[in-house]
Amino acid sequence: MSKIMIETRGISKHFGSQKALDQVSLMIPKGCVYGLLGPNGAGKSTLMKILSGIMKADEGAVYFDGKPWSRADLGKTGVLIEQPPLYENLTAEENLRVRTLLLGLPKSRIGEVLQIAGLKNTGKKRSGQFSMGMKQRLGIAAALLNHPSLLILDEPTNGLDPFGIQELRELIRSLADQGITVMVSSHILSEIEQVADYVGIISEGVLGYQGGLKEGKDLEELFTEVVRKNRREMVC
Length: 236
Description:
- By secondary structure, this protein is α/β, with parallel strands linked by helices.
- It has helices spanning 44-51, 92-103, 108-116, 132-143, 162-177, 189-195, 219-235; strands at 4-15, 18-24, 27-29, 33-37, 59-64, 67-68, 77-81, 150-154, 181-186, 198-203, 206-211.
- It is built from 7 helices and 11 strands.
- The strands form 2 sheets. The chain has a 6-stranded mixed sheet with strand order 7-8-9-4-10-11, sandwiched between helices.
- Helix 2 packs across helix 3 (108-116) and helix 4 packs parallel to helix 5 (162-177).
- It is globular and about 50 Å long.
């Protein structure tokens, strides 16, 4: 069995004349938190949408657990991209009940994911009354319903206060400790530095670095080096 959860080989994506991704090849080991860093508009969301089956690449291939990606792998993937898709007039439990009915999943899983996300005691409070952090955690709970091997989170700390960010950081780390591979994107270096085991840095659609931090360099220095290099290459 592969030790790599997700791999891309030469992924490219165009929107008209604009190249959003340029020959991106990444490898995400199982059971880790992989932080995808990049400036706004770098291609992070496009890459995550391809990995989650929302969008197709124009070139290249995706491998899931050592095999070519297929739509069957969606059943092993949890996704939270942009805002959580919630019914704000329903409680947390009712929101998850709707999702279990749509996906044909057992209702017994609802209590488990509410416990994992720290929302077990929200009772009859409607999700429209939740804080932004609680909404994000409910979105993650929904993404966990199908027991995913891979969880994809695109900018999950956007709009959160410091307490909400800390809670979400602890939740992400706990999921990796349970063996779930978590891919999380951000343009905030400090958040990724505190939660990730591996990082990938993307700029102008190019994956300029992936792996651990280089010896003697902090993440900000490494990030700046990659972004500047890719910008120079684009100009040239």
